[in-house]
Amino acid sequence: MDSTRMQSQNNDELITHIEHIRGYDERYDEVLFVLKQKNSEEDNVTVYFGGDMQDFAENMNSNSESKKYIKWSLENIAILLHHKFQQSHVLIVRPSRYYRGIFSCYDNYVPSGDFGVPKFVDFYNALTHLKIILNNVSLFIKRKNKPKESKSKHLSDSSINLEKARITLIGFSKGCIVLNQLIREFHFLQTKEVPKEQLNILSRISDLYFLDGGHSGKENVWITERYLLLTLTKLNHIHIHVHVTPYQVKDKMRPWIGKEEKIFTEILIEYKANVTRQLHFHNQPASLNQHFELLNSFT
Question: Rounded distance, CA 271 to CA 299, Å?
C-alpha cells in the first residue's frame, strides 16, 4: 500500500486510485475505490471484476482496439456502479496483467494461461486474497483521510469498515472467472476442516452477479458441476443474479457458452437456489457493443 493518486478529470473527488495494495502472500492488486452515496446501518461493498479491453482510460486510449470502447473504462464503471449501488462502497479490481494489452488476466484470483483462459483449481486462496485486499483498502482509506490529511471532504465524512462489510461480487465477461474460482473455494471450505476465520468472509457475501460470462477457452465458461452448485445453493444467504445477452449465449460460433449457461441456471433452479436470470436485448442482433451495454441495463 505505497502509493495513490486521485483522478484529475471528471469525478475527481469520488475515485481513489490505489496502485499497489497487498493481498495474500506476495500478491498485489491495483484498485479504484468509491465511497457509497447514501448512509446505511451496515457497510456494504460492491467488488467488480471486468472483462477484456477494460482498463484505465489512459491505457485504453493508447491501444487502437480498446480505445473504441473507452466508454467502458474502469473509471467510468466505478461511477456507473456508484450510482447503481448507492448504499454500497465500490471497489474496482484491475486485472493483474493484460495479454497483448487487451486480454484480462486475473492471476491473483485464478491461475490463467495466455489470453487469460482460466486453469481452475480446488483452492487458490482467492477468497483469502480478497479478504486481505478489502481489509487493506479499508486501512488505507482511513489512514489517507484523517481530518488533517484529508484531500476529499466526501471521503472523510463517513467511516469505512470493509473488513466487516456485506459483499456484492460482480463479474462481467472475463471477470466471471473470478466468481467461478471463488465458488470452487466455497465448496472446498465447506467440505474441509479449515480455520473458522477463513469462513468469515464467506458469511458476508450477499450477492453474486454474473454478467455475460465468457473467455477465450472452449469450456468452463459457466460452472456445470452439480456438486459445486449444490454447495452454492446451500449457502442460501447468497443471491445469484444471471444477466446475459445474445452476444454470448446465442453465438453459433461458440455454442458451448450458451449450453453451459443453460446447465448452470437450470441446476440452480432445480436445487431451488435463490437465483434470477434475465436475457437482455433478445430481439436485437448480437454485437460487442450490446455486450458492453449490459453494464448499463442490468439492475
Answer: 24
DSSP state of 271: T
Give the Cα separation of 268 and 180 in Å (integer).
Answer: 14
Distance, in Å, from the CA atom of 233 to the CA atom of 218, rounded to the nearest integer, reads 26
Whole-number Å distance between alpha carbons of 95 and 49: 8
pLDDT single digits (tens) 120-174: 999 999 999 999 999 999 999 988 876 544 444 444 445 788 999 999 999 999 9
Give the up-direction half-sphere exposure of residue 150: CA atoms within 13 A in the CB hemisphere: 14
- Parallel/antiparallel/unpaired status of strands 239-244 and 205-211: parallel
Grid coordinates representing 271 are 436445487
Q: How far, CA to CA in Å, does 23 sit from each of 32, 213, 263, 283?
A: 15, 25, 34, 43
- CATH classification for the domain delimited by 4-297, as one of 3.40.50.11210, 3.40.190.10, 1.10.3720.10, 3.40.50.1820: 3.40.50.1820
Going by C-beta distance under 8 Å and a sequence separation of 6 or more, which residues neighbour residue 73? 54, 55, 56, 57, 60
Residue spans of alpha helices (H) in the chain: 57-61, 74-84, 126-144, 153-156, 176-191, 196-204, 226-234, 246-249, 255-270, 288-297
The Cα 228–Cα 141 span in angstroms is 36
Give the Cα-Cα-Cα angle 244, 180, 20 (nearest 5 degrees).
105
Q: Please list the residues that pair with 1 across neighbouring strands.
A: none
Handedness of CA 266, 269, 275, 278 (dihedral sign): positive
Under 8 Å CB-to-CB from 59, ≥6 apart: which residues?
Answer: 66, 101
What average pLDDT does the segment 250-264 reach? 97
The per-residue pLDDT for range 72-128, each reduced to its tens digit, is: 999 999 999 999 999 999 999 999 999 999 999 999 999 999 899 999 999 999 999
- Residue 164 has a CB neighbour count (10 Å cut-off) of 13
Type of residue numbered 199: L
Bridge-based pairing state of the strands 166-172 and 44-49: parallel
